[in-house]
Amino acid sequence: MKSVSGAVAFVTGGASGIGLGMARALAAAGAKVAVCDVNDVRLAEVGEIAAREGWADRCLALRLDVTDRPGYAAALDETEAKLGPLQIIVNNAGVGIAGPVDEATHADWDWGVGVNLIGVANGLVAALPRIKAHGMGGHVVNTASEGGIMSARLTRGIYAPTKAAVISLTEHLRVELEAKRLDIGTTVVCPGPVATNISETETMRPAEFQVDSPFRSRDNPHGALPANPSGVNYWLDPLLVGRQTVHAIETNKLYVITHPAFLDSVKARHAGIEAAMAEDYLPRE
User: Of 50, 100, 121, 225, which is most buried, counting CB atoms within 10 Å of its CB?
Assistant: First the structure.
């Protein structure tokens, strides 16, 4: 897509944080935006923001749990009925689940994977046939995390694997769409620290997943990062990430990686993988 102006975009997890930054940036560039979220209070605030910024006539706020497949289809039906044919799907909804993976429960896994990975898959299954059908082209944006390509860290043993899976999923989706010569671009957004409400993740855990788990007892699993001697501001404005995403859509960039400062961690992980492929690493006979 050379421009998002006039296109219909559907943003999950769109009422706060990075999702709201994406919705605002898309709207500022002229898109019509369906903002979807599970938080009713923040959804109500979206209308106020849209009115203040001049895109209320191009905004639709919808309650959506991305694990609800019938609800997903219904939300897309309403979006297309009120805004027009879908062209941009932004699978952004996610949970910042954090805790010791060796102590994780089935409920921790079911919730984390259900939202962060299956929620993205639900979006693709529901949205891609609609984008393919009208033939006008479009774009898929999936939100992962820079943690999905960095070296392993404490407490990220559910979160980072789900995000790594989203990165791989998007890479494979790009190959498939290009092989079929469909005019549908792909982008995976890999944010580092962004000023969001990720520390409130556990307040959003559904009742059926509220078990006795060390994941639920952490006060602020995504708290402040260590001081950076280089003086780089780690915590980005979500609107900046939104603008980076719009740029990636309009130039069909596969990756949006927000924090070059973490390159050494990425290199260290890849160096370990490359070392394991050396001829003398394992017995060959």
Answer: 50
Catalytic residue among 159, 234, 255, 281: 159
**Three-state DSSP class for 32?**
strand
159 is an active site residue: yes
Tokens linked to 100: 């010791």
Tokens representing 209 are 């997943």
Give the CB-side neighbour count of residue 147, counting CA atoms within 13 A: 22
